[in-house]
Amino acid sequence: MKRMIPLLAAALALATPFASAQQPAAYPGQPVKWIVPYVAGGGTDNLARSLAEAMQPSLGQPLVIDNRPGASTNIGVSVLMQAKPDGYTIMQAENAALLFNEHMFAKLPYKPASDFTYIGAIGRFPVALVVHPDFPAKNVAEFVRYVKANPEKVSYASPGNGSPHHMAMELFKQKAGLTITHVPYKGAAPAMTDVMGGQVPTMMLDLASGLPIIKAGKVRVLAIALPQRASALPEVPTFVEAGFSDVNAYAFHGLIGPAGMPPEAVARINGELHKAMKAPKVVKLFSEFGFEALPGTPQDFYKLSRAESDRWGKIIAAAGVKLD
What we know:
Blueprint: H1 4-21, E1 32-36, H2 43-59, E2 63-67, H3 74-82, E3 89-93, H4 95-104, E4 116-131, H5 140-149, E5 155-158, H6 164-176, E6 181-184, H7 188-197, E7 202-206, H8 207-215, E8 220-224, E9 250-258, H9 263-277, H10 280-289, E10 292-293, H11 298-319
Parallel strand pairs: 1-2, 1-3, 5-6, 5-7
Antiparallel strand pairs: 3-9, 4-7, 4-8, 4-9, 4-10
């Protein structure tokens, strides 16, 4: 018996390192790729980089921004769908991937309801109706009267077909009974440039891109498309106050991953995202952008996305918007 004890101890000593080696490493054990489906330097990219910077110290690994613009964010989604669902590739998704594309594209190679892991909502950029300073309307009522008195003579700019700005104006057109010609651009910057220059008289503009030119007086803002006034522009009325209670539109953002991500990875990123939203630099950025944070569980994010997809599906169908 005495002879067996040393043998048993030796066996345990050999087994212990082997057992420890089989334990899964704590997540994350390597850098995490963060896909942004837009070009660098825009509002979405700036938001992603600010959040990633705030999350990284606590997460313990770099969050590497990977810009994959194009095709109504479908290029970024394609990269995400090809990634392993191991928690090391995530994407900042917005209206196109979450709400719009499934209603606009006849053949979409993914289903938002089942092909994503919903990690957490980030929040939403308010969208505002702006006009060139010389446009003969100082409020929404005057805008509606002018457009109706000049049918098919007024055009509006947007950053592109299927953008939140495009669909926000289509929603307003439906509710107000207006005829306005859509002029799509390749991005918010050229669209804003032509509205400031008077080549196109109006557009729906997100505050992340447009707040500086609004405050500089280069465009006049008539209304905010949210139920309550935006903290960044408290003096600007809402469409609700103008008599259009259903004109509620915004650029909605959240983090997603490929379907089947490990629950522990989802919980960790969701928790770090919530902490980052409270960081002073991020709070300041949100305030400057007029951005409304929407912290919550993955389940909250999924339910909100699906409800908004149903709402916008009806609006898109009524507008007859189709993309190939």
